[in-house]
Amino acid sequence: MSFATVFRAFPFPARFLVAHHVLFPLWIGTACGEVECAAVDVGSHHEACCAKIYDEAKPYYNYLTQRCREACDEGSYYDEKKRECVEADGVECVEPPTKSDGEPLFPLETYSYKCCVKKGKLYYDDEQHRCTTRSPTRS
User: Fold this and answer.
1) Residue 65: is it exposed, middle or buried by C-beta count within 10 angstroms (0-12/13-18/19+)?
2) Residue 120: is its pLDDT beyond 60?
3) What are the DSSP calls for 65-113, one per residue?
4) What does the alpha-carbon distance between residue 87 and residue 76 come to, in Å, rounded to a whole number?
5) Could you give the CA distance from residue 31 to residue 24 in angstroms, rounded to a whole number?
6) Fewer Cβ in 10 A, N or C end of the chain?
7) How far is Cα 36 from Cα 71, in angstroms, rounded to an integer?
8) Are 71 and 97 in contact (CB under 8 A)?
9) Which residues of 3-20 are buried (b: 16+ CB within 10 A; e: fewer)?
10) pTM for this structure?
């Protein structure tokens, strides 16, 4: 089956077009070596893709560089620009620990908040990477 346009018939079969649409982003990511897990299915998460590929070695995703990354230890946070874990005083509840297969033990979207609540603090300050008793204010 070929597609017909307003001006002329398109000579490629439908299977070729679908395969090209699906495989081209994967090929670009592999050939360039710069993008990982960018062509994940709608509704799935980049972290799930990284966990499948690297297990617990690189379970998280750096959205700035579009690469899988390692998990940071307690008391440190991930600096996306520097592409490394940074230790700082007072840093807490940044990312959940992971299982041996790389999957986080707790949902990423709610981990910081729930971790802070367990510590008796109701808010999480994204800029300082710590729990607070008052809502963080942005200047």
Assistant:
1) middle
2) yes
3) TTEEEPPPPTTEEEETTTTEEEE-TT--S-S--B-TTS-BSS-TTTHHH
4) 4
5) 10
6) C
7) 16
8) yes
9) eeeeeeeeeeeeeeeeee
10) 0.65
Name the token pair of 36: 């990982």
Residue predicted with more confidence, 2 or 54: 54
Q: Which two tokens stand for residue 77?
A: 């946070």
CA distance 76 to 24: 37
> 123: which 2 tokens?
């808010």
Q: Indicate the length of the chain as a whole number.
A: 139
Distance CA 16, CA 91 (A): 51
The set of residues, in sequence order, having a beta carbon less than 8 Å from that of 114 and lying 6+ positions away, is 106
Indicate if the alpha-carbon torsion angle 100, 117, 107, 136 is positive or negative. Answer: negative
**What phi and psi values does residue 124 have, to the nearest 5 degrees?**
-120, 125
CB 75 within 8 A of CB 87: yes
Name the residue with higher pLDDT: 139 or 134: 134
